[in-house]
Write a structure and sequence with these properties.
The complex is a heterodimer of chains A (248) and B (393).
Chain A: E1 3-8, H1 17-26, H2 32-36, E2 47-51, E3 54-58, H3 67-71, E4 77-79, E5 85-87, H4 97-101, E6 108-109, E7 118-119, H5 125-129, H6 135-139, E8 145-149, H7 150-163, E9 183-186, H8 206-213, H9 216-244
Parallel strand pairs in A: 1-9
Antiparallel strand pairs in A: 1-8, 2-3, 4-5, 6-7
Chain B: H1 3-8, H2 14-41, H3 52-64, H4 67-77, H5 87-108, H6 117-120, H7 127-153, H8 157-165, H9 167-187, H10 205-231, H11 238-265, H12 277-296, H13 299-302, H14 305-335, H15 343-366, H16 371-384
Helix pairs in contact in B: 2-15, 3-5, 3-14, 3-15, 4-5, 4-9, 4-10, 5-7, 5-15, 7-8, 7-9, 9-10, 10-11, 10-14, 11-12, 12-14
């Protein structure tokens, strides 16, 4: 059963415990200065972002049909059955197409490194495979971030929306965005007010390029026949012209 | 340009000084790239991961090399022999273009030591995977198409025959690979519908990239014929270039018409009423394509070398504007950031262009690239092998 994360902005108190736990899980430094950076980067894979009275979290959405994994020329990014989108740094050539393709602008890069890697949250793939919760969900003191089966979390989110209709904006972010993600957001206000991108296609992103790529064998085979045929015709014409030439 | 004088007195000229300055700055930028990484040598960021090295070096470099496949198709497959005199310069341009694109990629890719990975680690769902294979295979084909020039230069007849034997399938493969590669650079951006400004984002980007590449390939042929006629003191093949200009006018008309239909069917004309940077850049790009196209329909323009040259330059600039718009400026608003290349990015790009011009010149001087150089042996050879009209190049 695929796993997911539910982030409920109405429960978040902005304590940033998730940031610290995430830094620890990745072996990254974490201090007040880094806590104050409200953007994700190669040294901070998740962050709390303050939007007036509301908080929002940024982390990899681990999409059901991830654009990053589809565009990676070497298959360094993989969607696992368990839910996480994992990254194999040993394969990565650093083309950064995953960063360009990600509709949530999640992948980040070790820009100042001589041997750089892409960095992103992988929904604690290793921990989850071992049956443990993600580091962020485990440490969250208010239950704003919870981790579990995807279907169960969707049901949980719907229950919360129904139980307190006046406290929630009545939508779940991540259900249909880019064909569905493994991270869901609940909010008191419309999602654009907590910085979530709203102009996303409802369909899966990889289809956008696959629709063209799948024509490749047809184009190559038809093209070969066509070009070979044209050559044959024009060359025959030249041959005839040459043979008849001297008679004129 | 100042070539004729240089030959008499080899001294420091303005052009040589500029050339040296560009290469020096490029060398320092290379040092920064190697020792301080992409962060120390570019203005790229997490929100804007591709810059000038992709937008210009790769996307324009590949396009400007399109004369190679266009002319190979016209001369050898469609058998329009009259274009033969400009075929070899076009193949040389394409070969150098692809070498420089590969060199540029070594700068841009984060781990150039792993450039070979896509050849063994496959992901057929990735456009970048297709691009990597196209660059590799087509560079090989261009090398093979260029080899006869080298063989002729050193009088190696045996290998020359060998290469002629495989020339037809090789050229068909080359045209197919180019078709895929030119269009796939457009396909790359189909995955960013939420980032690329709607004046440029369209499902038919691959088609637009392909057609505009044919246009710019022809324009580059006129451009380089004009320059090499001056640099090497040859007569300009004006009737031939005028006839290419006719084809160019038609290709550009088709291209502009497709773009018009695309905006029409996507209901995107309203965007032109917005006073935004994107609108003006779009209008600039279209104007640079529209003006030369309209001019080239007039025979007095086609017969005037200066006007012809000016038109081809406009087409080239329009093409560059288009690729930069798709690859850089059209993505800024959607990415929520601004990008201005760092000096070192510009230095590397200018160095690549300068090196391209220099190598073209050296090869043009010492190898039988232009008909004038190879007229005599060429005549003898074609009579010997009358049955095989398909000699490469």
């Amino acid at each position: 059963m695929p796993k997911a994360i539910l982030y409920d902005s109405t429960l978040c108190i902005g304590c940033r415990a998730c940031e610290g736990a995430c830094a620890e899980r990745w072996g990254l430094p974490y201090n007040d200065k880094i806590a104050a950076e409200e953007t994700i980067s190669a040294h901070k894979l998740t962050t709390i972002v303050t939007h007036g009275d509301h908080f929002c979290r940024r982390l990899c959405m681990n999409c059901l049909q991830p654009a990053c994994a589809s565009v990676c020329p070497v298959g360094a990014l993989q969607k696992t059955a368990l839910g996480p989108v994992t990254y194999d740094a040993a394969k990565c050539i650093g083309c950064r197409y995953c960063m360009q393709a990600c509709p949530f602008q999640v992948p980040t890069y070790e820009w100042s490194s001589r041997l750089p890697r892409m960095r992103k949250c992988d929904m604690c793939s290793v921990r989850q495979s071992a049956g443990k919760l993600t580091a962020c969900a485990e440490i969250c003191p208010t239950g704003a971030t919870s981790n579990g089966e995807r279907d169960a979390l969707i049901a949980e989110a719907r229950t919360r929306l129904a139980a307190k209709p006046d406290q929630y904006y009545q939508k779940i972010y991540g259900l249909s965005e880019v064909g569905g993600t493994s991270v869901f957001f609940l909010s008191a206000v419309p999602f654009e007010q907590i910085g979530l991108r709203m102009n996303l296609p409802r369909e899966s992103m990889p289809m956008l390029t696959w629709r063209v790529l799948e024509l490749l064998p047809d184009v190559v085979s038809t093209g070969s026949v066509l070009l070979g045929g044209i050559w044959w015709i024009t060359n025959r014409r030249a041959e005839v012209a040459r043979k008849e030439g001297p008679r004129k | 340009m100042t070539a004729r004088f240089q030959k008499v007195v080899p001294k420091i000229t303005v052009w040589r000084a500029i050339f040296a300055a560009i290469l020096l700055s490029g060398a320092y930028a290379t040092y920064l790239r190697i020792f301080y990484g992409l962060g120390g040598s570019t203005n790229l960021s997490d929100k804007f991961p591709w810059g000038l090295w992709i937008g210009f070096d790769v996307m324009c470099g590949v396009g400007l090399a399109a004369g190679g496949f266009t002319l190979v198709a016209m001369v050898h497959i469609f058998n329009i022999k009259q274009y033969r005199p400009v075929l070899r310069p076009a193949i040389l341009t394409a070969f150098l273009g692809y070498l420089l694109v590969t060199l540029g990629l070594l700068y841009d890719v984060g781990r150039p030591d792993r450039m070979w990975h896509p050849l063994v680690m496959w992901n057929p769902h990735s456009v970048m995977f297709e691009v990597a294979w196209c660059v590799t295979l087509y560079s090989t084909v261009l090398f093979l198409e260029f080899l006869p020039i080298v063989f002729e230069r050193f009088g190696l007849h045996k290998p020359l025959e060998w290469i002629h034997r495989i020339s037809v399938p090789m050229m068909i493969l080359g045209v197919l690979l180019s078709t895929l590669h030119q269009s796939s650079l457009g396909t790359l951006f189909l995955i960013v519908p939420e980032k690329l400004y709607p004046l440029w984002y369209t499902p038919i980007l691959p088609l637009l990239f392909f057609v505009s590449a044919i246009g710019v390939g022809l324009a580059m042929t006129i451009f380089e014929s004009w320059h090499s006629s001056r640099a090497f003191g040859r007569a300009l093949e004006l009737p031939l270039l005028a006839s290419i200009a006719r084809v160019l006018a038609v290709v550009m008309s088709v291209y502009l018409w497709i773009r018009f239909l695309d905006l029409l069917h996507r209901d995107a004309f309203g965007l032109l009423l917005r006073n935004r940077t994107e609108t003006w850049l779009f209008l600039l790009e279209i104007a640079l394509a529209l003006v030369p196209t309209a001019l080239l329909y007039q025979s007095r323009i086609r017969r005037n070398p200066a006007a012809l040259y000016f038109c081809s330059v406009m087409v080239v600039f329009s093409f560059i504007a288009n690729r930069l718009n798709v690859g850089i400026t059209g993505l800024e608003a959607g990415s929520g950031t601004h990008y201005i290349p760092k000096w070192s990015e510009i230095a590397v790009t200018l160095s690549l262009v300068a090196v391209g011009f220099a190598i073209f010149r050296v090869i043009g001087e010492h190898f039988p690239v232009f008909e004038a150089h190879s007229a005599q042996p060429e005549l003898v050879r074609t009579e010997e092998r009358e049955v095989d009209p398909l000699a490469v190049g």
